[in-house]
Design brief:
By secondary structure, the chain is an alpha/beta fold. 52% of the residues lie in helices and 19% in strands. It has a three-stranded parallel beta sheet with strand order 2-1-3, with helices on both faces. It has a two-stranded antiparallel sheet with strand order 4-5. Helix 3 runs parallel beside helix 4. It is globular and about 40 Å long.
Length: 93
């Protein structure tokens, strides 16, 4: 087994053991967002991938994830606004 395969297996095992594997990926770069979401899904995360602050705020308010990867500057606002909404709705995110 190659070193990277071993690391991938370990990461998948750690993620699989998490009680809540939900993750928000917010980025306005569609290709990057989709690749990151696919990669995180392969490790076992349950990913909500969005491309706008508006959609990120909706997820944060109605279905807050355990984890988040947020772009800080998007066409319709700032990722820090979503981070604040996540902090308010789910302080452990």
């Amino acid at each position: 087994m190659m070193q990277t395969e071993h690391i991938d297996t370990e990461i998948a095992a750690i993620v699989g053991a998490l009680e809540n594997r939900s993750c928000l990926v917010m980025d306005d770069d569609t290709v990057f967002r989709e690749r990151l979401a696919k990669s995180l899904t392969c490790y076992g995360f349950i990913v909500s991938a969005v491309g706008t602050v508006r959609d990120g705020l909706t997820v944060a308010q109605h279905n807050p994830p355990a984890f988040a990867v947020l772009d800080l500057r998007l066409d319709d606002g700032y990722g820090l606004d979503v981070a604040q909404a996540l902090r308010e709705s789910s302080p452990s995110t």
